[in-house]
Protein 1
Amino acid sequence: IDNAGDGFFATFQSASQAVLCALDLQWRLAHGEAAERPQVRVGIHCGEAQMMAAPQPGLPAKPVGLAVDAAARIMGLAQGKQILLTRSAFDAARQHVVNGPFDTTVVWLAHGSYRLAGIDEPLEVCEAGVEGLSPLYPPPNSPKAVRDVSPADEDTLGWRPAVGHEQHRGTGPGVVV
């Protein structure tokens, strides 16, 4: 619903719809026939946004609110091909999204809390992705977001696998949940 600089803002009826759209987008970019493949990054957050009236006729209305800011900060934290979510979106989507495009298995990771510029409390940052396509590692600190985990807590971050699930063996820390 908005084009903001080098990014786009879209709304969905549910977090699971947003994740499925993001997974489909990443899959199509990686497996398309285009010679040049952009490394798109996605940030997903659940919350309320309002449309601010256009400042002058002919210009579009703009989405505003803390949820819009949080989604932009999460997207800014993501690396190329990475789909990051806040904990609320993560919990809402993972119960409904099992398979991604072409029956790929979706990997769900919790990366811990980050302090985001302009947001008072730390937010938990999580990732949804596909093995071999998505980064599946915690995003590095940026000027607008800093990881809020002490090095001593790094090994205990996230969840333990449920019965019948193995620990994720990707390139960075994380556990399949």
Protein 2
Amino acid sequence: MKWATVCVSCVFAFFPNEPANADETVISSVLENGGFEYPNVREPMDEGTVPSVWFHFSSPPDAGRVGLTTRCARNGRQSLFFKAQEDTDAYQTILQKIPVDAGGSYEFSVYVLNSAQDPIVGEAFGQISLEWKNAHDVECDRTWGSTWTAGLSTNLWQRFLVSGTVPYEAVSCLPAITFFSRDIRNHGIFFVDDAAFVC
């Protein structure tokens, strides 16, 4: 996987501890369920429940460990969490497919928090990206954003953003959130909330 490759047209940045602006995020974002409020979960940490509208992929297949939680939320009642997989060098991602206009500029952002009880450690990292698909649903390009690692705060939500220009052949974009477990197995959790995709 070419996670280090960055599109020349991409501009990405990391904005620590940015104050909440939930109203603007909700109004301007074309993402659905960007606050991960659906479905409602009963367990405090409901592993295996993928947020509505999003879809999940993992390598190895069916080895993902994502879920929804009521233990930690930046806004609303719930947030998304990723937990390290059992296999070394495994990865897992959630994505949402959105139609886009060729030549347009879009940005994807999320707020992320490390778990105080079970933080990510070692060489594990999370990252957001934009996957551009053509009319045949084939990926034609990918724009990678900056990463969060073991140094991620356990008490302050931090905002990560990736932006890029739509390739001329692309008709849709899949904003993605990915966790690369690398050298850790079974331990390590981070939370995600208030995802937004705007033009």
